[in-house]
Structures are given as structure tokens and as C-alpha cells.
Design brief:
CATH architecture of the largest domain: 3-Layer(aba) Sandwich
Oligomer: single chain
CATH superfamily of the largest domain: Vaccinia Virus protein VP39
Bound molecules: S-adenosylmethionine
Strand content: 15-25%
Order of helices and strands: HEHEHEHEHEHEHHEEEHHHH
Number of strands: 9
CATH class of the largest domain: Alpha Beta
Radius of gyration: 21 Å
């Protein structure tokens, strides 16, 4: 068995062999820390099938292949496809799809994998420039119960933030409405080649059972409206969102929310009350 991919010397060797330079435009930073990839895979509930976004040269994919029955990995960069065929040749449970994850039919793929392998999870070191759109596709278009991702530390803090903290915003409400969000551990810049200027964190989203059956896109839109200008009161933001003063006051009264409060003081449940009053 060859050396692990996620060690500095092997990664360097692979990058040199294929003349690869990490592409900033694709958010490429390759993990070179075997402990981190192992821990991420172990904690991701990937026993059945696991979907990875952006396998890069295969550092995390390798650990996922060892821990799960099947890995489906979407890679946007065509130049990495032959590299992955080489680095992951020992693993016959890995399917690499050369595609932009944001364009992929993930609902059908999830269904297919669930039928075949019993369960589907997500585990990825996400490209930073598309972290939020990727996560929201998975949140809204699949019912995947466990999503474990490495993201920039600041972004991870926003996902996991509690009300009345500077990081708390629409992103926190939207993710915590659907998931229990847990920061697992920090990953320093030196764990990557090339090292990014910022630290990262691994965040795990566990889908909540029994989420009220509402139009989540409409709810999220209203939440974004309530947070639009953070310094304004919820009344002022809602008034602009609805383009109607009276309606905004009535909705807040019906929801039992004091109009002078600001969105960052409101819990997810309180924002849901506003949405329900609106409907
Ligand atoms: N998983 C590898 C690792 O941990 O070493 C690479 C992670 S790197 C931060 C992000 C990876 O996502 C790169 O391989 C990049 O080419 C790929 N990527 C970027 N945008 C993508 C997209 N829209 N769809 C699929 N892959 C994408």
C-alpha cells in the first residue's frame, strides 16, 4: 500500500509529477495533515455512501474510501481527473464525477445512493468561494442527515452562532432551523498546501427531525429581510421587506414580538412565529 496522500512529502510528489499549481479560482488548498483527514472522515457518519465536493488530489477521499462503502466525489477541475485516477487507484469504491457541484443533479444522485447503500452523508473540504451556495443546495435539495465540512473559521462561526452575538445572522438562523450545528475542531493554515491566510474549522450539521412543514425558501427570504440592516429594528426591516408599515406592525403584534427588538436578538423560533403570522 502506498503512502497516504495527505502528508506533505507525498502531496509535493504528486503536485510535481503532474505539474499542478493550486488554482486560486477554484479555491484549491490541499490537505497535508493525515490526522485531520482521518478525524474528519471518522466523525462524518459516512458508513454507507458519502458525497464529497472537490476531492482535489484525493487526500480526504482516500480516508472516506477507507471508512465508507462508497464515495461519490464531484470535481470541477478537469486537470485533476487523471491525477485522481492515479492517486486513488487502490480504491474500487470511489466514483469521480467531473462536474460543477452547483450544476449537478444532486437530488437524483442522493436517492440513487441511498437505495444502493442505505445511507448518504456529505464530507468535504469546501472551496471557500462557494461554501454557502454549495451548502444551501445540500440543505434545500436533499434530505442528507449528516453534513461535515471544512470551512473558513469566520464562516463556521456564523453557522454555529447564538442570538445576541456579533456572528449571529440570517446564515445562523437558516442553518439552525434545519440542523443542529456543531463546530468539531479548528484546522490551522499549516495543514494545507498552499497554506491559506485564514484558519479553518470543521463544522458538522445534523438534520433535525420533525421540522415544521413550511416553504423554507419563503421563510429564509423573510429572515434575510429581517436581518437586512443589522442596526435597524425588526419592525423597520420588516416594514421594508413587506413594503407596508401597517402589515409589519400587525404581523409583529400577532407574533408577540416587540417591534423595537433587533433581528439579532431573535431566536429561530421567534423568527418562525413572525413567518407564521405573516402567512
Ligand atoms: N478535498 C481536497 C483536499 O482537502 O485536499 C481539495 C479541497 S480544495 C479546498 C477544494 C476543491 O474543490 C478543489 O479540488 C477544487 O478544484 C474543487 N472545486 C471548486 N469548485 C468546485 C465546484 N463548484 N464543484 C466541484 N468541485 C469544486
Amino acid at each position: 500500500m502506498s503512502k497516504l496522500i495527505a502528508v506533505p512529502s507525498r502531496t509535493k510528489e504528486i503536485l510535481e509529477k503532474y505539474g499542478i499549481r493550486a488554482k486560486k479560482g477554484f479555491g484549491q488548498n490541499f490537505l497535508v495533515d493525515p490526522v485531520i483527514v482521518e478525524k474528519a472522515a471518522q466523525m462524518s457518519h459516512c458508513e454507507g455512501a458519502v458525497i464529497e465536493i472537490g476531492p482535489g488530489i484525493g487526500s480526504l477521499t482516500e480516508q472516506l474510501a477507507r471508512h465508507s462503502r462508497h464515495v461519490t466525489a464531484y470535481e470541477i477541475d478537469p486537470s485533476l481527473i487523471p491525477v485522481l485516477a492515479d492517486t486513488l487507484q487502490e480504491y474500487d469504491n470511489v466514483e469521480i464525477i467531473e462536474e460543477d457541484f452547483l450544476q449537478a443533479d444532486i437530488a437524483s444522485k442522493t436517492k440513487e445512493l441511498k437505495e444502493k447503500y442505505g445511507s448518504v452523508s456529505v464530507c468535504a473540504n469546501l472551496p471557500y468561494y462557494v461554501t454557502t451556495p454549495i451548502l444551501f443546495r445540500i440543505f434545500e435539495e436533499t434530505d442528507i442527515p449528516w453534513i461535515t465540512v471544512m470551512v473558513q473559521k469566520e464562516v463556521g462561526e456564523r453557522f454555529a452562532a447564538a442570538p445576541n452575538t456579533p456572528e449571529y445572522g440570517a446564515l445562523s438562523v437558516e442553518s439552525q432551523y434545519l440542523f443542529d450545528v456543531k463546530k468539531l475542531f479548528n484546522v490551522p493554515g499549516r495543514s494545507f498546501n498552499p497554506s491559506p491566510n485564514v484558519d479553518s474549522v470543521i463544522v458538522r450539521f445534523e438534520r433535525k427531525p420533525d421540522i415544521p412543514d413550511i416553504d423554507i425558501k419563503a421563510f429564509f427570504e423573510m429572515v434575510r429581510g429581517c436581518f437586512k440592516q443589522r442596526r435597524k429594528t425588526v419592525y423597520n426591516n420588516l416594514k421594508e421587506y413587506l413594503d407596508d408599515r401597517e402589515a409589519a406592525l400587525q404581523v409583529l403584534e400577532k407574533a408577540g414580538i416587540e417591534p423595537k427588538r433587533r433581528a439579532q436578538e431573535l431566536t429561530c423560533d421567534e423568527l418562525l412565529k413572525i413567518y407564521e403570522a405573516l402567512k
